[in-house]
Specification:
The chain has 15 helices and 14 strands. By secondary structure, it is an alpha/beta fold. It folds into two domains: about 160 residues, Aspartate Aminotransferase, domain 1, CATH 3.90.1150.10; about 270 residues, Type I PLP-dependent aspartate aminotransferase-like (Major domain) (Aspartate Aminotransferase, domain 2, 3-Layer(aba) Sandwich). The strands form three sheets. The protein has a seven-stranded mixed sheet with strand order 4-10-9-8-7-5-6, with helices on both faces. A four-stranded antiparallel sheet has the order 11-12-14-13. The protein starts with 20 loop residues before the first strand and ends with a helix. Bound molecules: 4'-deoxy-4'-aminopyridoxal-5'-phosphate. The site of 4'-deoxy-4'-aminopyridoxal-5'-phosphate has 15 residues, from helix 4. Pfam families: Aminotran_3. One of its GO terms (biological process) is L-arginine biosynthetic process. Keywords: Amino-acid biosynthesis, Aminotransferase, Arginine biosynthesis, Pyridoxal phosphate, Transferase.
Amino acid sequence: MTSSGKKSYLFYQTRRRRPMLDQARDVYMWDVDGKRYLDGSSGAMVCNIGHSNPHVLEAMRRQMEKSTFGYRLHFETEPAERLAEKTASLTPAGLDKVFFVSGGSEAVESAIKLARQHAVAVGEAQRWKVISRQPSYHGCTLGALALTGYAPLTAPFDAMMRPMPKIPAPRAYLDGLDPDDEATGHRYADMLEARIVEEGPETVLAFINEPVGGASTGALVPPVGYMQRIREICDRYGVLLIHDEVMTGGGRTGRFFGADHWGVAPDIIAISKGFAAGYAPLGAMVAHERIVDPVLDAGGFLHGFTYAGNPLACAAGLAVIEEIETKGMMENAIRVGDVLKSRLSALMQRYPIVGDVRGKGLMLAFELVANRETMQPLPKELGAFDRLVEIAYDNGLIIYSRRTRGGYEGDHFMVCPPMIATEDHVEEIMDGLTRSLDTFMAEAGSALAA
Ligand code: PMP
């Protein structure tokens, strides 16, 4: 049934229906009944520059009047060429081969297939294992799903996938370690080395990680020294480093790529969400020339999607980057992100169940727990991950959650408004959040005291 009670011919994950969207502008969205929502998660951390940006709409309109599709085996298109050049100018030196796709899972699939073909091309065909982290999210297609450390999503498909090794994500806050101590970063990174050795270094193709953890870990910022040490370990064993920047790419953390905060260059980057910021389905895999050249020399990359380099999507992507740069949106993400983070942190004084606040720029999250000292999760019967989002939604505030800690043991919430958010929007978010937490606490009542 639709929200208006009619039979629906459309389905997604569940039968739950949502109000019909009417329009969206800047940080706000309206349903057909005129109810207004503050988009406090930019969709699923997608609409980084806000909704209905006039510069992007105009660029798309202009492109639409020229052409909306050119099959890549028939034509090159100017928007694809220009966006590839622009993207390469934003990546670390040498990472300037851009392969367009239509979304994040496709970008990750492309990255691991390119890595594999590179190994075959350079005579290392015994390398096939891609190590990833637990928990993590890298996409829902079977290749990307095999890398995803999130049992509720992967379990039914295990029989269809080759299992890939996992190492723990560096959740210092859960393990009682100091994230500002380099020893902590090294401790988690060294788990990669131990795993490579255990698996047999000659069989390990790549390591993939999200520079700032997304939906599965809730804006997890790596401890000091982690990113650099991971790079060293990959180099030591000839293992390619893939950064999944699907959520972090596009400026949300305050730098165009999340890994820019640590000055670490991977071999391959996957990017999507913020790349065209929801104006068109777009993603890319960006790889170092030294990875791409042997594959092309050996006969070509055996991979590609029909919509690759769609000129309309690329025109949108280009205009999005222009807006981010000319409007100083990354600087705003840092400035307003700092204000929002300190306001979220202040929730800890008022609500004992707010156990942790973390993130960078406007990629922020808070986690609810039963006990802040032990970080023991809330009773799962409360279904806080779902309930608080619903209450906030009723209050006209959209936040994002997904069960964390491997699936069923905890609740974190991403608060990631568009990078055009102001301090007034922060106040509105905090007002919606406190009202929602009050309602949640009142509903949960004795279950919280237990
Ligand atoms: N990687 C990461 C880090 C993501 O956050 C996502 C989407 N949540 C994906 C990959 C998959 O992207 P998509 O849903 O566009 O396929």
